[in-house]
Amino acid sequence: MTDPRDRQYTNGEITVFWIPSKCIHATTCFRELIEVFNPGRRPWVNMEEAPTRRIIEVVNKCPTQALVWKYNKDLTEEERKALREVDHRLEENPKTLSGTNAPTSIRIMKDGPIFVEGNFKIIGAENQELKPTIMTSFCRCGSSRNMPYCDGTHRKIDFTDQSTENGE
Amino acid sequence: MELTEKLISQTNPLKMENEKALFQVITGGPLKVTGPFQITGSDGEIIEKEEPVYLCRCGKSSNKPFCNGAHKRIGFSE
C-alpha cells in the first residue's frame, strides 16, 4: 500500500509524514511555517526549524491530510524502519511525478514566492542547469540568501505585492 | 517515425526539451519562463499571458508579478 514517493521527517520527538499523492498544494504549510516547509529547499521539510508544538499546529491545518504526524513513541516497526532508510534524493526525481504531460503550474503567492509544480527545467544565473525537481519556490522579494530559491526572507522584510512606483 | 524523431532530436536537441517548461534565471534580472505552463496570480485568478514571460525577482517591479526593468534602477544582484 505504501507509495514509494511518500516521505517522513523527524525531529526525534515526532515524525511528519508527507503523502504527495494526497497533496493538492493548498500551500497552507509553507504560508504558515516556511522555516520548516520550504519547497525551494531539499529536503523540503526541515524539522529542526520550529518547536514541535508549532509543527503539529501547522500539520493539523493541512486540508487533505497529505501531511500527518505521529509521536515517535507511537511509530510502528515498519515506520521506524522507513525512517532509517529514507532517501531524500527520490524527492528530487521528476520521474516520480505522475501526469507529466500537464502544463507546469506557476502560482504567485501573495506577498511571497513563486511556487512551481510539474515537469520543468531550471537554468541558473551562470547558465548552468540546476537540480531537477518536481516542485520548488523561487524568491520574489529580492532578498533570499539562497537565490534563486525562496528562503523565507520575504516575511522578515515584510515584502508586499503592492506596487512601488518609485522602485524604493 | 522513430528514426525521424531521432534525427530531429539530434539536429535540434531543444526541440525535444520543448515539452517541458523552462525557467531561466537571468543574472541580476527576472525569471524568464517558456514552454507549457499556467500562471495563477496571488488572487487565485489564472493570468493569460503569452510566452515568454518575465517574472520579477528583485521585488521592486510596479507591474508585479512581471518584470518592469526596476532591477536595473536598484542595481539588483543575486
Taking all Cα atoms into account, the compactness measure Rg of chain A is 17 Å
Unreliable spans of chain A: 93-99
**Shape field of chain A:** globular
CATH class (first level) name of chain B: Alpha Beta
The CATH topology of chain B comes to Ribosomal Protein L9, domain 1
Q: Supply the helix-strand structural class of chain B.
A: alpha+beta
Termini Cα gap of chain B: 45 Å
Mean pLDDT value of chain B = 84
If you average the pLDDT of chain A, what whole number results? 86
- The total count of strands of chain B amounts to 5
Low-confidence stretches of chain B: 9-17
Q: Main β-sheet of chain A: number of strands, strand sense, barrel status? A: 3 strands, antiparallel
Q: Order the strands across the largest sheet of chain B as they lie in space.
A: 1-2-5
List the total number of helices of chain B: 3
Largest interface: A-B, 37 and 39 residues
- Based on the structure, what is the oligomeric state of the protein chains? heterodimer
**Span of the ends, CA to CA of chain A:** 54 Å
Q: Please state how the strands of the largest beta sheet of chain A are arranged side by side.
A: 1-2-3
Tell me the helix content of chain B: 25-40%
The topology string of helices and strands of chain B comes to HHEEEEEH
- Overall geometric form of chain B: globular
